[in-house]
Amino acid sequence: MAHDPLYQVENIVFERRVNHLALLLDLSPLLPDRLLKRAIWLARNADEAALRAFLVRALARRLPTKVEQIKLRREHPVRRGMLIREVSIPEGKQVKRLMTRLSEEQRHEILERLLEAVEKRKHKSASRQHKQQQQQQQQEGDVYRVQVGRRLDEFGDSGGGGSASFWRDISENLPRTAASSQPPKPSPAAASVITPTPPPEERTNIVNLGFAHRSAADKTLAPDEPLACGHAYYFWLNIGRAHKHAIGTPTPIDLNKLPEEAVLTVALFGFENELGITKNHDTGELKIQANGTVKVLRQPLSKNPLSADSPADYLENFLVFPVRVPKNEGVYRLRCNIYCAQVLVQSYVVSASARTTATAVNEACTKKLDYVLSQNLRASHLASLTAEPHRLSIMVNSNGDGSHNFRFFGADETERFKDDAQIDGDQLSGFLLQARRALHKVSWDNENEWDPDNKNLAYRYKSGAFDAKMLARDLAYLARAGWRIYAGFISHLTKTAAELETLMADPGLVQIALKLSPRAVLPAAIVYDYAWKPDVFAASFDTTPFELCPTFAAALDSACAGGPPLEECDCFKGGCALKAMIADIRKPGSGKTLQDLPPVICPSGFWGYRHSLGLPLTLDGTNKDIPPVISFKDQLQMIACVSTDPLFVERDTHLGRLKKLKNALKFELDNSYGAIVNRLKTTIPQLLYFYCHGGVRANTNLPYLEIGNSDRFGPDDLIGEGISWKEPHPLVFINGCHTTSLNPEITLDFVSSFVQQSGAAGVIGTEITIFEPLAVKFAEECFSRFVGAPPHNESMPLGRAVRGARLELLKQGNPLGLVYIPYAVGTLRLQESQQN
Fold this sequence. Notes:
This protein is α/β, with parallel strands linked by helices. The chain is 34% helix and 21% strand. Strands 21, 22, 23, 24, 25, 26, 27 and 28 form an eight-stranded mixed beta sheet that branches. Strands 2, 5, 7, 8, 10, 11 and 12 form a seven-stranded mixed beta sheet that branches.
């Protein structure tokens, strides 16, 4: 317990006699926006002038405009010669370091309690001074009342033009001195002492979660009331004022600017042998009203679950879901996800204690917000995230017992798809291993990891020559792994494979929601969902004459001859010859099986070619909202951080082409640690490009990128150097050529530091080791689509840009565009600011 950072923070902040305002000075960068107004008020009313000036100056940096910042600093100038170390305290830096190890929810709770402690101390101080003032007034009051009484007699109760009431008012409310013939003005010091702290406004935008009795859904349970074993209950969700029986720390969201038509879908998912979810009663919908309130659009239940004396509008404000409790005592869970247009924006794990007795239990029910794309659900974010509705969202998370849950939520024009699958950890690891081995085989003709010392290994697509037979065989290797992954999780679903196939048949946006745990990343790009039986060719896979689907092969020939791009291929529009073969085999009475399929592979069966994928990481750091757009004004800026290794023979020509992508692109280059760090402290680019080597430090799992000759840049350097961005939020592209061991599990350290701590909009990484010809071609194709460089008429969202780059490489005979992973929302795009 003593080493627990939360325990240490609480011990310093709330158990020691520290100056809380001085402590706030160091913690001001961590303060959430919703607490800024309270903190500024407290700072401006601090008793100590020097501390007041420094604290106001620190908080002013958090204001949105320069005008506001300058105005506040001028009101409270720092005295010449005064140093901040004269008012800061040693505990401040210690607490700040510890706070970086806490979750965002824990940090915000600590900071809110800190402000409450300052307010309480302020109230006590004001009360003591006010009491002393009242005693002094009591001693002087008799003399003063005589003087005032004489004046009132002189003016009388009428004909005085209101003067009598004026003197009466000030005689009752302001302190006086006996010697004064006129009522004196109160001193500024006295006025500041008796000014009460403004009461915090009652929030009406709190996400409330809780349980209620099955006999009546409006009879809510207190958070310390355990659930009874073997009984049925209701789980409820409401967005409004803080509910007295809501579980956990209140989670506020900003709904003030949400468009009236915004609809949030709430879906419950269960855990195996835990709180039971009722099929077909596990989703509901909320709609944001024009006045900022949230009303129920669709209830999970069709019947009325309320008591006779329930409020008439209860079901307009509360979503109500039936749940069941296991028979044995224990702590059981469910997952509550909030979606907007099939984009998962928040996910809560709710835990409840089940007991055979009704004895109260401290925190019998708890919640944890463990996946966040938007803490505030602001309109500008949701509108951008959902400008194009997603077809499917998949959340992959560890259950803590070695197994993993895949949570599916999708919809097309007519049907909604909701399901989940639990997969054993060993099985999932096996899928990932198969996928990587297939990618290795395709890239350097060996299923093992890249070994730079093995002279027999070489990049197979170095020449760039188109080889149709090689392409078909390599796609077969990838499809074999991709099909096994797909069949592996589809077999655990309660819905039929046909339902998911129908949903995913046409191109669309797909979100793979990633948490920091599990570390394993689903290789979604090589998932292959066209049914086949690769075991038929197992004995001679290397020599089997695989061919491309004839429909796709024709589209490929046309694209190479200057015809329509591969995105327009009929295989993506339901006209695939291979899919038609599979459909014929599946017909009852066909007399055929998958063994009768010829050795044909269609690239449209891969999710990475058919769909625009996004793999956004949960926000578990200082940032609260995933940036849906990267803003710029007049000119884009790209900063390239490069290695000077002479083995990069294509580096200079590659960088030269990137520099000329677009006239409105400002391109800058750094090739040392010091240069890039100093630039990133003063410049915020829209695009940050690493073209270099990479690796993992000896005896650790900490990755690094090698810049210049041998300078190492790691995720911890972003935190240590204090690099963070407010606006714009750059896209980071890590092209780590010949990078060994920098797999997705380890790359997540870079992704989390860039996105969660520094405020990047997303990161593009790779699934395996890559080589310079692939790195050069993919980066140029992806960047040209993302920024809208010729021949592309306009900039594309990131998901479409990555998909387009993959298909362009495929047109040239290279399938390895599938190794690139966009750790960002698929709708991320550039947006030119219209402000002057």
